[in-house]
Sequence to fold (274 residues):
Amino acid sequence: MRNGLTGTIPVMLLALWAVLAISAYTLPLQPDVIQLQQILAAPGGGAWLGYDDLGRDILDRMIVGARTSFLVAAWVVSLSLLAGTLLGTASAYHGGWWDRTTVLVVDVFLAFPGILLAIALAGLLGPGIDNVVIALTTVGWVGYARLSRAQVLSLKHREHVQAAEALGNSKWRIMRKHLLPLMAAPLIIEATFGIAAVVIAEAGLSFLGLGVQPPQASWGAMIRDGTRYMLVAPHMVLAPGVALFAVVLSVNLLGDRLRDKLDIRVTDRNGTQS
Fold:
């Protein structure tokens, strides 16, 4: 029963996040309309989540913020997964100077805390959602490269790979047909946890003023704006804060669930998948 809830609830919350992000393009939202008479108004009446310090509907801005975090997470994880997997797989399979160079570059990136490097890059590139994607992708590919490299090093000496080489298959075909399918499970799990990390990072950059710029809505920017009114209008912080907490927790729970489902060792030890 507990396993079912920990698997179903995160999926439902993430589905709601995706639906809100997509619906932001079609719903008649007014996230930038200022109503001076509603400044700092509490939830109730015509606004379920109240109004902010400029009299803007927080619910509308929450939905637009969901779109921002969803788009950034989708782009960053997709680009990081693609770049890191291709580089890590190719370097491990070819070996030699290519592999040594890749390991050196990865070690250089790992010498710096990822979020600090992202902040520095975002500061150099300037604020904006495009630059946030570039900054987070620049630091995000490293984990996928390390994981794919480790997987290939353990897989490339297996009999089916050596048989494919003996039959004259090209290296590209071997990597695409015989290595990547076996690496899919750990990469999917890594990407799931990567979504949570990107959502937190995007909110952090926006909180610092390095993400999306006003009047565009971001959960991180909404939390920053609300900190000045915590005593008189706590709903300005609670609404985006709870949304951010729920999305990140749901992604992490889903990642744990996927790890249990896709980990053969766990499945064999438990006999059946719960």
